[in-house]
């Protein structure tokens, strides 16, 4: 049942395959338009939305500027409240910590709260390799897991599936891993939810260990926060004896009061709700109530690398709302899998190269997976200037190839264009010789352009040549 | 500034800007030293290659009261990217020249509405028209409803709303080549929305976007012409061609 993003082709190749899937395009177009509509409506209700965005960005920036101190404070407050804090440099270390806790308690299954970070580190696969089953309890994650599929959206991982497909997955797969779906299951949303509910209830009541992430971690109080819509998270956070929370270090918020703008920005941007149905907060161990052993794994996995990037560090403000995905025209056409990561869409196009570093062909293709239309920046509740970071990362990709023995054709073309564009007379000569506009196009592969689009006929005389001939007199 | 795309492929747009601005009493010049704003290099990640291009740009336009360009994209590049290129060059003289010139660089509709203070430019264009607000005009520059106000004041025009107008057409410079399939998928949807309006003419403030959408419309023989905003605004009863 495990799939992985490892070995995904670069974005243009993966995108081409996705574009050929008309069902996928239909599902995505419909779903993103629905979420967009809801978001627009509830955002428009807030009079000072722009001020709220600025406040949210300021909180995250303050947290990131003093990250070292806030993390130490978080560790102290968590420890004071009876939690065990672990530090993990990368995925391997983090997975090892979780596996060790599971082994110590001799559990062969854990229930999971929907968490992006545990997907980022491949925790389910690491647990599976040790003979421990990890059950996703979020409805959409369950669909993805049962379908042996990969998530394609941050908030709605099964967004690429329609109701009929979900019904088929439930009917054919649920019985093999737990309580089966009713044989007469319809594709009515309520019926599908009821089947999932019955299937999951069994797992909640049986599991002795749960794994979660956290939307925020408050340093001063040692409090982790999860916001969710279904209540499955609350079940995982309260029923089992042992709780392990894996938290990216960028999730820190210095004070409890600073949660305020973030908890107002997130649901409206994310699910298009005024407030999310469930907000759970937990701090360490409370004797006799909830998990009696609480572990918190603070994970780096490339975050300090991103933090060191002056332009790119703003991406660590991300609160994983997925608003940028829902407004992105590229994402809407190709879906999430083409990005080759659990973080798809515009934020994935910058976050992956920032976390992993540039240099790999798949990662290097991501900053180019955008038309730079700017819709993502407009929608981002914490004002991450995604187009700015995309352009910055493109320059890092280009700079990484500056010492290549054989330069790419694109680099040669850019160098020659740079020479031509650095002077009007040079450009004038180039236009006379080659009709530059079309000529440059040809060098970048006009065949790929004209396969689907007509090119305009180049005029007999450029504007420059006309001006020179007539001195700008329109009657000549 | 006449952008490199306009210069080489759409000289009529440049001529329309000249005609329009002169009609409004502006003294127009075209410094022959100008070339490109450098956006193709910056947006593809070739910052070193953009440095001499930006240097040429600020040199060519030094000493003018205003630089007017019929492109939201190029105006956006001048205002938002030239500073970045100057920092890359670590050249304080260039940085100073950029800081001096950027605020005096305007997209056409901004110049008409904000600097000249006109919305009725005395144009006549008796056609059914729909308007696509290009992404960089809309979001990078924030030109808002200025182009629309200019179009609404045109005599004889029938302006129809474009569904999903704010969505990108998929051009995106080198994106149209590097991710050609996705670009065409986006452009095809845009072309479909344009056809649905029943308009005779699609108008926008950027010829590069129009080249992409127009190329798809023409391939599908949609019978919709594309025209730059400047050409519509330059058109008068006496001279319906608008350009030269």
From TrEMBL, chain A:
| Keyword ATP-binding tagged | no
Source species, domain of life = Bacteria
Tell me which residues make up the LUD domain.
73-298
Residue ranges annotated for the 4Fe-4S ferredoxin-type domain, each copy included: 315-384
Q: Which UniProt keywords apply?
A: 4Fe-4S, Electron transport, Iron, Iron-sulfur, Metal-binding, Repeat, Transport
This protein's name: Lactate utilization protein B
TrEMBL record, chain B:
Q: Which organism is it from?
A: Nocardioides bizhenqiangii
Q: Which Pfam families match?
A: CCG (PF02754)
> Which residues does UniProt assign to the signal peptide?
none
Can you give the residue ranges of the Cysteine-rich domain? 2-78, 129-213
Q: Say which domain of life the source belongs to.
A: Bacteria
> What protein does this entry describe?
(Fe-S)-binding protein
